[in-house]
Amino acid sequence: MTPKEVLELAQKNDVQFVDLKFSDLHGRWHHLTMPSHELNEDLFADGHGFDGSSIRGWAGIEASDMLIMPDADSAFIDPFVAAPTMSLTCDVEDPVTREPYSRSPRGVAKKAEEYLKSTGLGDTCFFGPEAEFFVFDDVRYSSTSNECFYSVDSVEAIWNTGADEAPNLAYKIPHKQGYLPVPPMDKLMDLRNEMVLTMQAIGLDIETQHHEVATAGQSEIDLRFAPLLKMADDICKYKYVVKNVAYKYGKAATFMPKPIFGDNGSGMHVHSSIWKDGKPTFAGDGYAGLSQNALYYIGGILKHASALCALTNPTNNSYKRLVPGFEAPVILAYSARNRSAICRIPQYSQSPKAKRVEFRCPDPAANPYLAFSAIMMAGLDGIENQIDPGEAIDKNLYDLPPEEAANLQMVPESLKGACEALSADHEFLLKGDVFSKDFIDNFVSLKMAEYDAVRLRTHPYEYNLYFDV
């Protein structure tokens, strides 16, 4: 839409407020709201000032003045606000230079799309993420100097088979048996349907919704693929809808990768493909029907996978899920159909348009602007440098003999390891000024502070192991 069309949409819907939203480094939305009389075409050219130093990980107080710049094409009517409210997703600019702020994640994604075009290898990189989440009925946690605990609960959780629910009607989902059950075992059908209807109402294109593998309300709603920047915007909207619909039902939704022990965590498998002039470039006569460039793209992802993890799996909790031999692929290998490989080539359709690469280790805690940009940049580096991914491995990598497993590389085992990998391997991200050295250094510093925050605290299970030493 144009700014003029946004104004017409606001008038048509009797909009009373305008909500300006933007993403921080961690992928969390922030917002400020103004009365609708402040909405005019000048707002899209001049932006609105705010204090950038109050956003974690951004500028210091000496350079705190910033502008948020609404994107007219992002407008939607917010379904969760009582007064009619229009939401606009924003970029962030330096008010002095009027250049995009280098630590703005959305700015990184825009530069990534520009870089792709500059290479001549394609003009569009499509992304199709599969973001999973949990919906809990109760969430409690605390961490003080003398106490540390968390407690989550769900009416469908297997640990409630003996609970006094007055009455307990059973139909609890056993660990690792939650994939696609029908109601009454699946108790979130109506909730997910409302999420889907709300998403569609604000312009998201939905393919499917279903219960996921874990007990205790694990779910997935799949978005239809879209170009990089649009999909990153859509994931932010997706999370906003999931959390607010759950809250409306008196529940809490979380995209935390591993909120419960002993069952699957939440992943975000990321499908991507490069197109040029409206035609797919990943289809060919190579392995699994891929083109040579698609195989090089895989080679780039495998080469840079450890560094990518800092951006695609950016929390301490992420590495509770990335454990060899359990639920998530961690071995740097590729394969068709084989879900134990970190890169998979889906075989549901042999149409050239369906040819894509699925990167399977990311999780939904990732900032989508950064994760999608980094994945594409790694793949492009593979094409530009003709990085051979080696031979595909079409066997269960979770069950390899020790002598074979010893020859395979894996992603880092901790956030620290991923940050160290990113510090050592980030030149591919600096091409086209997509990421800056300042961005990488600042991001690593923030994440290492998170790593230390967990490392320094006593873990409750240490009492089980060591109290009586």
Write the layout of secondary structure elements.
Layout: H1 3-12, E1 17-23, E2 29-35, H2 41-46, E3 48-51, E4 65-70, E5 76-77, E6 85-93, H3 105-119, E7 124-136, E8 138-143, E9 148-153, H4 189-201, E10 206-211, E11 218-223, E12 226-227, H5 228-248, E13 252-254, E14 268-276, E15 279-280, H6 292-312, E16 334-336, E17 343-345, E18 357-359, H7 368-384, H8 402-405, H9 415-424, H10 427-430, H11 437-455, H12 461-466
Parallel strand pairs: 1-6, 16-17
Antiparallel strand pairs: 1-2, 3-4, 4-6, 5-6, 7-11, 7-12, 7-13, 7-14, 8-9, 10-11, 14-15, 14-18, 17-18
Helix pairs in contact: 3-5, 3-7, 4-5, 5-7, 6-7, 6-9, 9-11
Please explain how this structure is put together.
The chain is α+β, with helices and mostly antiparallel strands and 469 residues long. It folds into two domains: 3-101, Ubiquitin-like (UB roll), CATH 3.10.20.70; 124-466, Creatine Kinase, Chain A, domain 2, CATH 3.30.590.10. The protein is 31% helix and 21% strand. It has twelve helices and 18 strands. It has helices spanning 3-12, 41-46, 105-119, 189-201, 228-248, 292-312, 368-384, 402-405, 415-424, 427-430, 437-455, 461-466; strands at 17-23, 29-35, 48-51, 65-70, 76-77, 85-93, 124-136, 138-143, 148-153, 206-211, 218-223, 226-227, 252-254, 268-276, 279-280, 334-336, 343-345, 357-359. The strands form three sheets. Strands 7, 10, 11, 12, 13, 14, 15, 16, 17 and 18 form a ten-stranded mixed sheet that branches. Helix 4 packs across helix 5 (228-248) and helix 9 runs antiparallel to helix 11. 43% of the residues are buried.
